[in-house]
Task: inverse folding
């Protein structure tokens, strides 16, 4: 399987496992798990051809670690970023003192007025370091990095979760918790 094939299939898996499982006629359980055998069969019918070995390689080599298998490797799910209602069964975790939010420069004025909203996703996504936030912000245009006072948020009773791939999640970031703006 070429790198180009892995990328193309990975994007399709992201669409199916995070947003539109009905596109290929599968159902996710309440925690977002899909049956691996059914996923492979139905993806193949929709011109996304891969084997179990290919899927394992995609999951293990994905640079963003977007997907996880269960222990038996008979179920798979996206780690976060869902626009459909699922329960990832995440437990609240105390965050580090600061987290970072990468965004495109064109969104900064709106964020500084209304805070960071989750939009169509289940959570606001935050990064543990500026490098990761920069990559995230770069996907949407010229990046800007916001420093989030996550320690203060937590002390104020705001819950945080951490997905399997290390992304920090919360419901909303009020403007008062955004301490710095780094324009790149």
Result:
């Amino acid at each position: 399987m070429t790198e180009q094939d892995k990328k193309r299939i990975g994007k399709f898996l992201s669409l199916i496992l995070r947003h539109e499982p009905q596109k290929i006629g599968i159902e996710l359980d309440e925690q977002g798990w899909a049956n691996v055998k059914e996923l492979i069969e139905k993806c193949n019918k929709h011109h996304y051809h891969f084997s179990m070995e290919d899927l394992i390689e995609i999951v293990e080599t994905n640079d963003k670690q977007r997907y996880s298998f269960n222990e038996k490797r008979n179920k798979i799910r996206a780690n976060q970023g869902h626009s459909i209602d699922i329960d990832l069964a995440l437990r609240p975790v105390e965050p580090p003192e600061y987290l970072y939010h990468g965004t495109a420069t064109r969104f900064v004025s709106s964020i500084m007025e209304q805070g960071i909203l989750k939009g169509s996703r289940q959570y606001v996504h935050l990064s543990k370091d500026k490098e990761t936030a920069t990559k995230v912000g770069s996907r949407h245009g010229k990046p800007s990095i916001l420093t989030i006072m996550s320690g203060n948020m937590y002390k104020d009773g705001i819950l945080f979760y951490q997905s399997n791939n290390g992304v920090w999640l919360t419901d909303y970031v009020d403007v008062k918790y955004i301490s710095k703006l780094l324009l790149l």
